[in-house]
Each structure stands twice: as structure tokens, then as C-alpha cells.
# Entry
Amino acid sequence: MDEQASGRVEKRASGGRRLAWKTAVFSAATGISRILGLVREIVAAYYFGATGKINAFTVAFQVPNLIRSLVADAALSSAFVPVFSELLEKGERKRAWRVASTLFWLLLLGLGAITALLIVFAPLVIAPFGDPGGDKQLAITLSRILFPIVVLLGVSGIIVGILNSYEHFTVPALTPVFWNLAIIVGLVLGVPRANTLDTKLYVYAISIVIGTVIQVLLPLPWLYGLDDRLRLAFDWRDPAVKRVFVLMLPVTIGLGLINFNLVVNTLFASRFIDPDLAPRAIDAAFRIYMLPQGMFSVAIATVLFPRLSRLSARADLDGFRHTVALGVRQIAFTLVPASVFSAVLATPIVRIVYQRGAWTVEDTKVTAGALAAFSLGLTFNGVMLMLNRAFFSLQTPWTPTAIAVGNLAVNTALAAALYHVGTWGIPLATSLANIFGAAALLIVFRHRLGRIEFGDTARAFLRVTVASAVLAAVAYPLWYVLDQALGRSVLAQIVSLGSAFVAGFGVYLISCRLLGVRELNTLLSLRSRFPRG
# Structure
């Protein structure tokens, strides 16, 4: 018995190291993309600022982005991967690829039709947002340019789902790099040559569509080294195809409702706060907020999703619970310090990222408040993402869907109560709703599958929170002293904020070591992989 227990411990430790390695590679690839995404936002902020017609663009882009989340991309992948992985696990590889091919063509035709309808009825889609940026017609035209990303990312969801099912994560994670590069090149080359602000915004929208085409095409060559290939097929009678669509309905509602919170935020910001600044300020803060989210929680959940699907197919509930708990603790280890750092240093972060060109000091002030408010819910949003994927892999997606409905109701009620305090009240409502959603998912998960190593997980949260408090106590005073001494030139801001970052996260890691945070040991175990790499 002792040998069996020792073997289980060693196997779990090895699994943790593999998770850490795959997550590190995925995070690095995603990190490059997110950094380029910030560069994209910096370039856009330089040309358009945060006030005026750029708010029409913000609304126009969020609407097709919401539709995409409802019927394509992550929602599709979350329904497709469990079914495709189960067929692979059972050895039905030819059938798995026939199912994938059928879904590819059905989505291409179906989403193409939806895209055409959205273009025709764009005025009705934009109407609830009032007069964003003072130019409703511009928002309508921009949305029509951007709606094709719905069908493009729909077929991309199948391609990425196939690669993830074979545990190929790096290439899908790198495709957004080229999406961002295409947009940056489009802005730098196209905007200075445009004569009017409207035309410059059209350049921005067209660059996004071109970047999305590149994002869809780039992973295709990596499909050819797998067991089979996508082909023309319409085997819609296959029960597996039907099961994907059955699963996709609640997944679509669940993920769509989570993304619908952003649209609710924009609606309140545009109609009730300041249509010329608040939508863009919230969106700009959200872009910074998504940097650690994409690098860590999305990476961890994406890497674990195929494994969870296989464990579910094998009915290995012990392994399933341990894997989920491992993911939750890794998310806490990475996101709690990130949320503390972005909250206490929100103003210098926003200043160094955005404040140049058309972006003003007032824009920075409003956006920094929104970023600090978003930061409160960062870790809880990551936990929600991990637990949602757990339920999706169990092929019981109606549970997170029901909680997503409650989350939307809480977010809307809080936004209605808090928008009076200013722009930052809207992201604060989202953060509080994330806390509610994470707590509800944990309670239901424990009721459904039993204990999720709750004691270890709670202790990990407590320890990383204490270590993050030490981070704040070191990072903010150091930044303040350097900021006062060096001034506000770009180089001075890089030195002051960069020094605070290095010192803060340095003491965080030391504190974690002293407090016995096991997730740090998993991270340190990666050092043994580099010589072989």
C-alpha cells in the first residue's frame, strides 16, 4: 500500500511538472500575442485617443465579438473537444475526422448565413447603444465591415479544437501574434495616409478582418501531420455531430452570457455615463486586464481541457478532481499577485501603455480607475474559466450555463447600482459578479463530484494572498520614490515601473518559498527541462 501511495504521489508530481511545462510554453506563446496586443492598443491609442469617434468603433467591434462568442470560437471548441477527444480515446479516429469535417462545412454555411443577416440588420443591432462617439451611422458601417469575423472564427474553432485535442497548443497560441501584427501594420501604413477620421477607423476595421483571415489560415499546415485530414463531408446524421450541437447550445449560452457582461458594461457606459469616453476607457482597461488572464488562466485551462476530457471518458474521478484542483491552485499562484500589482499601480501602468499622441491625462485617470476595479475579479474570473472547462469536459454544460445566467443578472443589477459612482463602477460590478460566479461553481462542483482538495486549495490561496500583500508593500513605495526622482519621460517610466515589477515579484517568489507554496516548486521544476530543450 505504501508503494502504491508513493507511486500515486510521484505520478501526480510528474503530472504537475508536465502541466507546468506545457502551460509555460503556451503562456510564452500567448504572452507574445498579448504583448503585441498591447502594442496594437498603444498604436490605436496614439492615433485615436479615448474620446470621440473611437467609441463608435469600440461598440461596433464588441457586437460582432459577442456574436462570435455565442456561435463560434471558444464556445464551439468547448463543445467540440470533449466529443472529438472521446472518439480518439476509443480508437475511432476516422469517424472523429469525419465528424470534424462535417462540423467544419456546416458551420461555414450556417455562420455565413448568420453573418449576412447581421450585415443587413446592423442598424437594429447597434440601436440599443444609443449614439456612441456621437456618430451612430459610423458605428453601423464599422460593424458591417467587422461582422465577417464571426464566420472566420467559427471555422477556426474547429481547426484549433483538433490541434488542442492532439495536445498541440503552441501554434494555435501563436496565431493571434500574426493577427496583431497584421492590425499594427495596417494602422501604421494606412492611418497616416487616410484623410478623415472616419476613413482611419475604416482602415482599423479592415485590418482586423485581414488579420482574422491570417489567423484562420496559419494553423492549417499543422493538420497534415495528424491521423487524417479535413475533407468535404456532410454526415449530419452521425450521433456525435448531433452531440456537439447539443453540447454547444448550453456552452454557447454559458460562454455567451459571460461575454454578454462586456456588452452590458458598454451599454451602461454609452447610455448612462459618457458616450464619448466611458466605453473606450473600459475597453482599454479590459485589454490590460486580459494580459495576465490570457497568459495564465487561459493557458492553464486550455492545456488541461483535453486531459480532463480523457479522464472524464475513463470515469477517473479521482484524477479528474486532482487535475481541476491543480489548475485552480496554479491560477491562484499566477493571478493573485498579478491582480494586486495591477490594482496598486494601475495609474502608471495605464500611463506607460496609452498616454501619448491623442491620449490625454484625463483618459489615463478614468482608465486607471477601471483597471483597478477589474483587478479585484481577475483571479475569480480565472477560477470560473477553469471550472467551466471542467463541467464542459464532463459533458454536463447546463450547470455552468445556469450559473452564467445568475452571473449576468448579478452583473446587470450591480452595474445599474454602481454606474452612478463613475466609469469605474461598471468594472467593479463585473468583478463582484465574478466572485459570485466562482463561489457558485465551486459549491456545485463539490456537490457534484465531492471534495476538490479544498483544504490544500484554501491554504494555497491564503499563502499567495499573504505573499501578494508583501509584493504590494514593496512595489508601490519603490515605484513612487523612483517616479518622483526620475520624472515622467518614457525611459524614466520604464525604469520606475520595471523596477517595481522586478522587486515586487522577486519578493513574492521569496515569500512563497518561505510560506511553503507548493506551486512554486512546480514552477522551479521547469529548470530541469531547459537543458533537454
In short: Confidence is low (pLDDT under 50) at residues 5-11, 526-533. The chain is about 85% helix and 0% strand.
